[in-house]
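the two lines:
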Amino acid sequence: MSYLKPLFRHPKLPKNKLGYTQKEYEGSLSTLCAGCGHDSISAAIVQACFEMSVEPHKVAKISGIGCSSKTPTYFLGNSHGFNSVHGRMPSVATGASMANKDMVYFGVSGDGDSASIGMGQFVHVIRRNLNMVYIVMNNGCYGLTKGQDSATADQGSRSKAGSVNPFQAIDLASLAIELGATFVAQSFSGDKQQLVPLIKAAMHHKGFAFLNVISPCVTFNNNPGSTKSYDYVREHIEATSTLDFVPEMPEIKTNYEKGKSTRVAMHDGTLIQLNKLATDWNPEDRVSVANALQHARTKNEILTGLLYVNTEWKDLHGTLSTCSTPLNKLKEDKLCPGTEALKEINAGYR
Amino acid sequence: MKPTNTKDPEYYHKVVDCQYACPAHTPVPEYIRLIAAEKFTEAYMVNWESNVFPGVLGRTCDRPCEPACRRVRVEEEPVAICRLKRVAADNKGDVRQYMPQGPFPSNGKRIALIGGGPASLTVARDLAPLGYEIHLFDEQIAGGGMMRSQIPSFRLPEEVLNEEVNFILDLGIHTQFLTYVKSLKEVLEGGYDAVFVGTGAPRGRDLPKLPGRKEGDKNIHIGIEWLAGVAFEHTKSIAQKVIVLGGGNTAMDCCRTSRRLGGKEVKVVVRSPFEEMKASPWEKEDALHEDIKIIDNHVPLSFEVKDGKLIGMKFQKVKPVYDENGKRQLLPTEEDDVFIEADEVLIAIGQENSFPWIERHIGLEFDQWGMPIVDETTFQSTNPKVFFGGDSAFGPKNVITAVAHGHHAAVSIHLFCEGLDVHDRPSPYTNLVSQKMGIHEWSYDSSVAIDQRYIVPQAKKSQTLKDRKKEVELGFDIATAYKETQRCLNCDVQTVFTEDRCIECDACMDVCPTSCITFTVNEEETALRQNLLVPAENLTQDLLVSKELKTGRVMVKDEDVCLHCGLCAERCPTSAWDMQKFLYSTTKANQMITPLPLIEK
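prediction for all of em together
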């Protein structure tokens, strides 16, 4: 087995604005099972960060426990990382973000880490609208402990051993919308064309950006009867729209059908260009999104693409009115008011 | 694009760049792996079977394989293929036990080989085990042809050459040395079933019209003749100041030999710019290392003779000018002509074929340049009994090309003597075997070494210049050779793709270090090449295109910079990718299946 990736790269590998090739965004060679959907998501993150010319040292990857939470080793090897306690990634991310608001935060979690042990943390980080990208690599099973049904396994889904899941599934995307997440998208590890622009848009969203990515477990949940297998997902996938993430103000494109093309402006002036495929759906209207998700569920469809985006709500730093300088960069002269001021303050209490 | 037909033996053959570039198609990665395993005898035999003279070629080959090496495209320097071959030859054990063992039962057919060089010897080796009675004629005292007469001993020690020539002669070849064949007609009348002509390109080019050529004749020599004189010890010294004319490998051999025979100020003067000289770069380096001056962009004007003695040469200075097609012209620089002092001049400006001994009325046609008309596949001349090979077939090339010709000619001669159609040629022997040993485990060393090319050590100049026979290159020691073998990318271990197993998880595309694999919508080749992860701009390298997959896309792999690291196959959950070793061997006459005799009822 190879433990190291050969160091040679294609000599004509394209370079981004920083002069880096994709190599500078890669991590070590994955030790997950061959064909794991998580590796595709890692590759999508690498591609998104490369194409957006993100400086690797301005990214932090934070994860919990699980197959999904191992992946930060396999992408962005030149970025910061923190592998935290099971289900506690949001706390660490919150702390990190509080200390340094200038970084891009990738929270990487799985269905067990988010929908079971970490559910409490998950709902609260949404409520606080922490400025981060929260990716759930959702395979509907506990791959690390030999494939037991997880809380996101669909009712009726058959496991590799043949047992049928009797419980209802937690729909993380619906839950996130219900709780007021400001950016919610759903995607599939096997569809990078959709996933990469979604990650880019999520990185530009100022607030909590939630990506629920269905990522088949090839070893334990890719069998007939499973609703999280490559074949099942490909058959039941239904995209809300095709989308492009537009980093700068573009000229108006006319090749989209009228009335179907929508743009969503992000905080920083970038745009998401959507070519809508779903009817009666407006990504900026929570009710229509909730309805679309419910409709899809009754039809056994998996609705993917950008589901909901709200750019009006303040993120946690906005709500707390923190200063513009990241807290960790404030020096003593700013933090310590000095003896005179202290005397004055103390005098005020006398 | 249509799905690639990997059943065509040439598809995977082309992926093994070194083997494909080798005229004799020696399975290079195969023997490099054997060297790594210190199986030198086996490595030698893989070579011997294919190129007949591993020890000779491991020192003197023109190395067409090395510029083709994938390593050049990935890194910069190719694997030192040639010098690894020498390691196998230097460290081999008893190889004779693996060679065909005579005496061979006679098949009643007699063959004459004219010339005892690499082409003829190859024919002899391939045909002897089939029971042919082989008669070899050569004007020299021993076999080897130009390998003996033109390659100096400091590059190729006599023992190495003798050993490999004798491997062949000991197969029961009837040799007639010191016999100059004066007439092909006479040979044909000798009742041979076929005749093979491997007489090389024996005539060195001269400058007969240059002023002073006649007057200075005593001190002006033709390079290859002079080298032969040195090899057979007729010539034992040279004057102190020597000019060598020409920029090819013969010129390099001439100047370096001059340094060993007493030449103190040896200068190579060449018309073309230094970079464009025909000599191999390493030969030029070695010459420069031996204090030989290479003066480029000088065109000879005259031999200067004073009092009946050569005193030097006059040259015109030129500069290269290139037109828009890159065609070169040498234009005078208008500077003063240059006089260079010399006591002796060696002319090494090329070689020509010469067939004064072939009668023109025996059904063997010649073209307008005096070359015999020879079929490029069968090597048969217009006289069906006469076959050509080596330099005598299509002009001067090199040893490995002569060997390749020899194999083809031997196949033709065998077919001809069996009364079969010489154009109906046997297909190559190929084999494709999975290298999988277990989950994520391969029977070849799949890791990719980042080492730079290792340098072959040389003997001290103070020693080598004193002794003409002292070999300059010392060869790799086993430890360094091992490191060099690890630079080989094992291009013969093919990435074999099976469509119906693919679940399109993209794992191979994500993991491939050199971005060779893309899953995309099928298109015409030009468009497809542009739409890959990294555009496939090297048109000499093929695309491996799969049949349509479930989602309607196809898998496209650009073979250009694939490292054969096996990661695609390791990360594939369904074994749609597999690493399979491809062996390609051009059919040699001695491997052809002879039809069983019919059973009489």
